[in-house]
Design a protein that fits this description.
The protein is mostly helical. Helix content is about 60%, strand content about 0%.
């Protein structure tokens, strides 16, 4: 990696979001996944990514290698050549206490960056650092906060009635979060 070549003493980690995105794109290739067992492969890769200890990581790798999906030689080659050699960059157990911030971004964060650059900075002629900070503090962040407040008001149980199937701990949350959590709960019930 370029960053590591320039800063050899630094630790370079892969973003969880982009790692998942790369897995999904890689598994869409039919030669990596000819039997449409994408969900099983993703589940096994996530078990490798999320352990808190080295022994849990090694057990998860052994579990993958003992599974039927490992028989696919192209999938095996993709995982062995692309992912396993770089495991210390994406497996949680190897982040330790050095990583005190969240190890991921998402398209929402990237979208906010794009909005800031193209909708706020484009209209200002002062292209200095202080000019950018001024736009950030006086315009962009207040607008984002107002959007946040508005979304929370819309999600409030004082403004809407929740379905009885929505657990209490998920109420008063954004609709996309509720949908996502309910889907994950349903998926967890199916796989257990």
């Amino acid at each position: 990696m370029s960053v590591h070549l320039l800063f050899s003493d630094c630790k370079v980690y892969l973003c969880d979001f982009h790692r998942e995105q790369a897995w999904n794109m890689g598994l869409k290739k039919t030669d990596h996944n000819p039997f449409n067992d994408r969900e099983e492969v993703l589940c096994r890769l996530r078990r490798i990514a999320r352990p808190q200890s080295e022994s849990e990581y090694k057990n998860a790798v052994d579990d993958l290698k003992a599974s039927p999906v490992w028989q696919n030689s192209k999938l095996r080659k993709w995982i062995e050549n692309t992912w396993l050699p770089e495991y210390k960059r994406w497996v949680w157990a190897y982040r330790g206490d050095r990583l005190l911030i969240s190890g991921h971004t998402n398209n929402g964060i990237e979208r906010q960056n794009g909005v800031f650059k193209h909708e706020y900075l484009q209209t200002h002629s002062r292209r200095t650092l202080s000019g950018m900070v001024e736009v950030l503090v006086k315009e962009f962040l207040p607008d984002q906060y107002q959007g946040y407040v508005y979304a929370n008001r819309r999600a409030s149980s004082t403004r809407r009635k929740y379905n009885v199937n929505v657990p209490v701990y998920l109420r008063n949350r954004p609709a996309f979060l509720i949908r996502h959590c309910l889907e994950m709960l349903q998926l967890a019930e199916q796989t257990s």
